[in-house]
Amino acid sequence: MNKKLLLRILLFGGTIISLFFVPWILIKAWVMPLPESVQEQLDEALTYGFDGIVVYIDQGEKQPEFYASGWKNRENKTPADPYALFKIASIAKLYDAVAITKLVGAQRLSLDKTLSDYFPEWTGRIEYANEITLRTLVQHRSGIPNYTNSPGFWEHPPKTVEATLGLILDQPASFKPGEGYEYSNTNYLLLAELIKKVTGSDKSHYIREAILAPLRLKNTFFSIHEINIEELMSGYYVGIEEDIKTVDYGSMVATAEDVGIFLRALNQGTLLNKEEQAIYSSIYKYEHTGLIPGYQSIAKYHKKEDMVVIQFTNTTDFSGYQWSLSEIVYHRIMKILKKSSYNSGTID
Questions:
Q1: From CA 229, how far away is CA 41, in angstroms rounded?
Q2: Across 20-130, where does the E strand assignment appear?
Q3: pLDDT at position 341, please?
Q4: Averaged over 151-163, what is the pLDDT?
């Protein structure tokens, strides 16, 4: 047989076989005709397996827009509420990074001091503790292993800081400090302990004083134990029938509006002074996502459009496509908003 013909047959055969492994639900979500409105897009998102979805949109001088679709509580058939509280997971790292920035700006912390400087008791228990600087902790460049990757963490989350740190103590580093990048929740657990040590109180107290109070954010909390649990949007995991919102992973809780107000202030420079803004820009980013069982979130400021868009979805599947689907939905919402702004002549 002609070699070129054989090659074509093999390539064609490989293409046919690969079609059986294509995540068609992602392709469908991406190529569906774009709806005319954000609400229609949210309603469409429910067909991809989301129980509920909330979106908050702040377009600068315009009045904020609130959208919701699906269920706040599936069992009780309570409709999704755009003002409901939600576990924001790693979006909280933005608040932590701001807190560290303010303490550095006040010369209560130094980005160049090491973990051993601040916590000598962990020297020898955390590899390279004498080389890990505060800067590398904030930037996820410390090399400290991520405790959430420990076997069984999500099924049986530790109940104390000591027990959580025990998952990574005496473990080898992923790399030498500053020589790599690995997203690690352990970094921010250590930062929380550092804030507590330097201020004399939990980070929640400092963040309330330094961030929440100036922005008048009254719907941001640090634990599910601080809230009326009925105000929290239910959380679901694919394959598990019951609501898992009462499982405590230590997440901050907030409304989409509160997150949006915070994000605009952070990006527009009204939360930090000029010196603090320079410090923050040198150590961390200005947007974030969040993911824990039952809750996934996207919080971004779009500078060109002067637009804050927050999206919460309350259905997760770590081994499935729920995260990718939420990103596709967010992308399509942005296309709808940009198209609308362009048609109205508000974007150059």
A1: 28
A2: 52-58, 65-73, 78-79, 86-87
A3: 66
A4: 90
Coil, strand, or helix at residue 70? strand
To which H or E segment does residue 173 belong? none
Torsion of CA 217, 220, 225, 231, to 10 degrees: 100
* Exposure of 47 in the CB half-sphere (CA atoms within 13 A): 9
Range list of H helices, 240-273: 256-268
Please state whether the predicted TM-score (pTM) of the whole model is above 0.85.
yes
Residue entry with tokens 């827009």: 65
How far are the Cα atoms of 32, 266, 267, 295 from residue 281, in angstroms, in the given order? 38, 10, 10, 28
pLDDT score for 23 = 83
- C-alpha R_g of the chain: 22
Inter-axis angle of helices 92-105 and 274-283, nearest 10: 130
Model confidence pLDDT, tens digit, residues 5-17: 443 433 444 433 3
Query: Taking a C-beta distance cutoff of 8 angstroms, is the pair 59, 347 a contact?
Result: no
Q: What is the pLDDT of residue 31?
A: 87
CA distance 276 to 269: 9
Closest by CA position to 43, among listed 19, 3, 79, 94: 79
